[in-house]
Amino acid sequence: MKHHLAGTKKNVKPCDNVSTEVKQKFVDILNKVQASKNLAQMEFEQRVDVGSYFGSGREVEGDDGNNVVSGVSGSGSISTRGIRGPMDRFMMKESSSGDQPTTITPQNAKELRNQVCLDIGRFFYENAIPFNVARSPSFVNMLRSVGAYGWGFKPPSMYNLRTWILKEELTTTTKIVDDIKSTWPLTGVSIMSDGWQDIRYRSLINFLVNNPSGTVFLKCVDASEHVKDAKLLFRLLDEVVEEVGEELVVQVITDNASNYRAAGQMLMEKRKHLYWTPCVAHCLDLMLEKIGELPQDKNALIKAKKVSNYIHNHSWVLSLMRQFTNRELIRPAATRFATAYLTLQSIYQVRQPLEAMFTSEKWTNSNYTTKLMGRKLEE
Which of 127, 220, 225, 330 fits a 20 to 30 Å CA distance from 95? Predict the structure, then answer.
């Protein structure tokens, strides 16, 4: 809108009806934004040059009126934490001047590599990136590409990342999916459904298509009004089969709940050459649930849940438990019965430290021993 009213012809046609006064006002606004961007970029490059990564980015208002660089501290000034003095800036500039990199010799190769690793590490720490990202093949490929480019590589901006680079990646991903789809007529496919609930308590179903070449995400459907009704579930599964192509589908895999089981039977009656297959993980979960209904198992599992939940719901008791066991207890999950057995196993593994905790002076002198639940837990 700003470019439209300013008549810059940047990604939008100029407004024919805007007054000169309004047009000049928006030209001034855009010039101010650009000047602010240039200043922020200059300060950013300066911080990079001196090895300071702690300075907050200047808040810059983008063309769309949104903040594009956040991190303003207090009154809007740039944080100086980690910024070196003028002499350090001068010496750093002198030592890094010139267009050619330092010649790598066996003597300084280790030192140079250590510096690169430290910079990579700081990038992970500052941006709270999980360490297992380092296992990603794309992370390794990224570093190889940067190394192959050599000295003077200018990294892409956030605008590059969200525009042409994103479009190119979408094109690449689409081609990968199309390559997998081209193998579907040769091998046939399995349609897999995975039901889950989001934070708004909507019942969602992910549909995926699998064959030996890979798994493709097909779509996600809000099935809140379908999930309890076998006939509606049947229609939903039937539509997915039709979308993929009936002649390609070998089997449809769903949970083993009664509504899915009935929907699967109706699907096989309509489409004679495909099979409905229950999910193995869900079958195992239901088997464990049945085993857990046996009296001797049920009693142990109920006690294990009570112990785990009580400890996790009282921060002082949780802290004391960690001091004695040096490990965590697994909490039972409402949606998967197998976690109850994992909870029982984790308590069994730390049985002796837990017994020591409940006979320790810290526990016996605490207020928890005077409460009914605390005494039951101790028993």
Answer: 127
Q: Where are the beta strands (DSSP E) in the chain?
A: 60-61, 67-69, 189-197, 203-211, 214-222, 249-254, 275-278
CA pair distance 299, 92, nearest whole angstrom: 69
Q: For the chain, how big is the Rg over CA atoms in Å?
A: 31
What's phi and psi for 355, nearest 5 deg?
A: -60, -40
Domain ranges of the chain: 2-93, 102-155, 180-278, 290-378
| pTM for this model (two decimals) | 0.60
Do 259 and 233 form a contact (C-beta atoms < 8 A)?
A: yes
In order along its 379 residues, the chain shows pLDDT tens digits of: 899 999 988 888 999 999 999 999 999 999 998 888 888 877 777 766 655 444 444 444 444 444 444 333 333 333 333 444 444 444 444 444 445 556 667 768 888 888 889 999 999 999 999 999 998 889 989 999 998 998 888 899 999 999 999 999 999 999 999 999 999 999 999 999 988 888 888 889 999 999 999 999 999 999 888 778 889 899 999 999 999 999 999 999 998 888 899 999 999 999 999 999 998 888 888 888 889 899 989 999 888 888 998 999 999 999 999 999 988 888 876 556 788 888 889 999 999 999 999 999 999 999 998 899 899 989 9
Q: Are 22 and 49 in contact (CB under 8 A)?
A: no
One-letter amino acid for residue 278 of the chain: P
Tell me which CATH homologous superfamily contains domain 180-278.
Answer: eRF1 domain 2 (3.30.420.60)
